[in-house]
Specification:
Layout: H1 3-8, H2 27-42, H3 46-56, H4 59-71, H5 75-84, H6 88-107
């Protein structure tokens, strides 16, 4: 595969969607959503938990998802969760690791 073909396969919106919808929820509904997201996370239904955590704006849940993705060797998805959770230390740690990989590739 040549370079032009590889670049053509990149989605025009990029690889990462790094936005978070701000939904105005009453506090009791937000708490109920967070509980539901935690239940889904504990059941291993991570995609649904992610949607609930994003809707509720629950940063701790997003960080837990990011930690899980790091454990699964999915640093881009972990980066996305840390970014959305606004957890600078964990986000920066992933960026540092990815930059070391790129540096290694450039030296090869």
């Amino acid at each position: 595969m040549n370079r032009k073909d590889m670049l053509a396969g990149i989605p025009k919106e990029g690889f990462l969607k790094l936005t978070r919808e701000n939904v105005d929820l009453p506090e009791e509904k937000r708490i109920a959503l967070i509980r539901k997201g935690n239940d889904l996370f504990n059941q291993g239904r991570f995609d649904l938990a992610k949607k609930v955590f994003l809707t509720a704006g629950y940063n701790d849940g997003l960080v837990r998802l990011g930690d899980r993705y790091m454990g699964e060797k999915k640093p881009l998805e972990a980066f996305r969760m840390y970014w959305l959770a606004r957890h600078a230390a964990k986000r920066d740690h992933v960026v540092e690791k990815m930059s070391l990989v790129i540096k290694r590739w450039l030296h090869e």
